[in-house]
Amino acid sequence: MPALTELDRAVRPPWAEVPLAVRSAVEVELAAPVAKAWGQVGGYTPGLASRLALADGRKVFVKGLPASHPTAGSYRLEGQVARRLPEDVPSPRLLFTVDDEWIVLVFADADGREPNLRPGSPDLAAVLAALNRLGRTLTPCPLPDVPSVLDDLGPLMQGWSQLALAPHADLDPWALRHLDSLIAIETAWQPWADGDTLLHNDLRPDNMIRRVSDGRVVVVDWSYPCRGPAWMDVVSLVPQLVLAGHPPADAERLVLSRPALNQVPAWAVTGLAAAWAGYWQLNSRLPEPPGSIGLRDYQRKIARATRRWLVHRTHWS
């Protein structure tokens, strides 16, 4: 599977194009001027994402976008969540926010790279270890005011039901042939959605960094938090592994043996796979968000990967 490139991602403004008043406010909080900035790739939101080297030798990571942008609310929510994460959570520490003309989040620097999930990658063990640590450090949920996963995702994860209202000509033959069955199982995860873990809810390789300093994986971009069972974040890695080139059976062997899955029935996992597949199938058909490049293409790819996993689990012809 080809790796994503800068051309597949959002068009991000460099630090130098951020309004002077915003840059000055950040430097005042940092108590040091910025000496150098490096733009970072990853993700699909068209906001600032840069590592900054300060004149006193420190480094930080900044992300932000104009307060008037349609997705500004997700940045504000991410800041509220990151500020309250326990110290032992594998995630960079939020240093401060600037919320005025722009919303800017300033994090402790995490020098590293996006982990490689391809078969045989040495990064896989570090990613799985990070998932285990997330479950341990975020249970019980430290943010009691976040929505439950059922309230948050339940209305969204009914893509097959929505697609059936006006079947698309480009829907693949397997999905068309089994559309009624997919509708029947896409809510099977819901009876197992009760839990008291803070879920990240968007675990992808570009929301992870494998640090150079110690090889550990940290998780970033807490824009869609909710409260639920730890197994849901763990299982979300399976379609990412399939997308990275793992056969579905191998991806399952790596992930479904995790302790968080001990009491979860197979049909609930299958239902969640169906719900994700329908969600991505439906959303990949929407217009590209303003300033984003590649989001819908990514959703088409992850929808196909999840369908492969679903075929493996259901054995439907």
TrEMBL record:
This is Aminoglycoside phosphotransferase domain-containing protein. InterPro entries: Aminoglycoside_PTrfase (IPR002575), Kinase-like_dom_sf (IPR011009). It comes from the Bacteria. Residues 58-238 form the Aminoglycoside phosphotransferase domain.
